[in-house]
Design brief:
The protein contains 2 helices and 9 strands. It is mostly beta strands.
């Protein structure tokens, strides 16, 4: 069975940057289960997995445009230090915004804190090593909900 729209695929993966540093991996965990064609993965990953079958191993190089997007300089801004109250603020810390987004602190000054609302992997070329562990038909409920249910998926 091939990975196509409305199939549930189970994959193991390792994600590296262009320097070979591991960013994320499913090694030592259960495979990632996802509903193909439902937008649960970045576009480049879904495109690369289309038509693959159980047992296939592949390497995918995904451009920022097909991954987490290019860096958008308008999403970087300096906010008053007072916006963080008395809490300690250091570069690399992440905070939720009042609008439901997430920002990463990139610089801390005496009066201001620079925050970046871009995804941490925006502008990064992604290198995935993937092994397809299983492919099955999705249930009607999974298709209507847009995600996998049961083991490896969502439990209602």
């Amino acid at each position: 069975m091939q990975i196509t729209k409305n199939k549930v695929a189970s994959i193991h993966y390792t994600l590296r940057d262009n320097e070979g540093t591991i960013i994320d991996s499913s090694e030592g965990r259960d495979p990632l289960h996802y509903l193909h064609g439902a937008g649960n993965l970045i576009a480049g990953m879904e495109e690369g997995l289309e038509g693959k079958s159980k047992g296939d191993k592949l390497n995918l190089k995904i451009s920022p445009a097909k991954g987490y997007g290019e860096k958008d300089s308008s999403l970087v801004q300096k906010v008053p230090r007072t916006a963080f109250g008395d809490q300690e603020v250091k570069p690399g810390m992440r905070f939720s915004t009042n609008q439901g987004g997430v920002v990463t602190v990139t610089d801390v000054g005496l009066d201001g804190v620079t925050v970046d609302a871009n995804h941490p992997l925006a502008g990064v070329e992604l290198n995935f090593a993937v092994e397809v562990m299983d492919v099955r038909d999705a249930s009607n409920e999974e298709i209507s909900h847009g995600h996998v249910h049961g083991p490896g998926g969502h439990h209602h």
